[in-house]
Specification:
Elements lengths: L3 H31 L11 H10 L9 E2 L5 H10 L1 H13 L8 E6 L3 E9 L8 E3 L3 E9 L2 E7 L4 E7 L4 E5 L6 E5 L3 E5 L3 E7 L6 E10 L2
Parallel strand pairs: 1-10
Antiparallel strand pairs: 2-3, 3-12, 4-8, 5-10, 5-12, 6-9, 6-11, 7-8
């Protein structure tokens, strides 16, 4: 019978081998993407996505962390489908003093990628609405202050107002037992994909206003 330490050693060796196999597959996928090959959503298993996500290179040195609510698999897929855009925005966020930005629109790549900065009062919960987009992904980051943001899967909502394709905006109602609410602060950014209905700009006790940026990045 083999000693326990033999099994332990084998376990860690196999774990390292598995890790390097996944890293190699990620490298191959990146090379295929650079050559214009098709990136498929199903290529991104949760295990692969976590390794890529936790490595953190995709943030291009931006020190703000992603909120735990971020869908890691969808992020990995969308990033690799439009890597140039995602790299461009995170480079901008890392190299810009965000607290000095004036309210307004900052275009980084035409209609494919732009940022809006707002500064002003937050809203009571009752007057906020669930919203969602089809063309764009939202990266929402509170630069100064705090606010509450809600999230619910788009499959759970009901239409409140007909979707406006010109504005890429629809409003919805959602069952509260399906919704999750998060405190958005300068410590983390949230990402809302087309599959995520969201309810931003909700007032938090002690914070009547904030300064926030919203990145609009083209969705696949």
């Amino acid at each position: 019978m083999l000693p326990a330490e033999y099994h332990d050693k084998n376990y860690y060796i196999m774990k390292k081998i598995s890790f390097f196999i996944i890293l190699i597959s990620l490298f191959v996928m990146n090379q295929e993407n650079a050559k214009g090959q098709t990136i498929k959503r199903e290529d991104w298993t949760l295990k692969k996505a976590k390794i890529w996500f936790e490595a953190g290179e995709w943030k291009n040195a931006w020190k703000i962390v992603p909120h735990p609510s971020v869908n890691i698999q969808e992020l990995a897929y969308q990033y690799h489908k439009n890597k140039i855009l995602w790299d461009k925005v995170f480079t901008y966020l890392n190299n810009t003093k965000l607290d000095t930005l004036s309210p307004g629109k900052y275009v980084l790549d035409g209609e494919n990628l732009f940022i809006t900065v707002s500064e002003g009062p937050l809203k009571d919960f009752e007057v906020t609405k669930w919203e969602a987009h089809k063309k764009y992904i939202d990266i929402q980051y509170v630069i100064l202050g705090k606010e509450k943001m809600g999230m619910v899967p788009i499959q759970k909502v009901s239409v409140l107002e007909i979707f406006d394709h010109t504005k890429d905006l629809g409003f919805y109602t959602a069952p509260e037992d399906e919704a999750k609410y998060y405190e958005a602060t300068p410590e983390a950014f949230l990402i809302f994909f087309p599959g995520d209905a969201h309810r931003p700009s909700i007032k938090i006790p002690g914070f009547d206003a904030d300064k926030k940026l919203v990145v609009k990045i083209k969705a696949d």
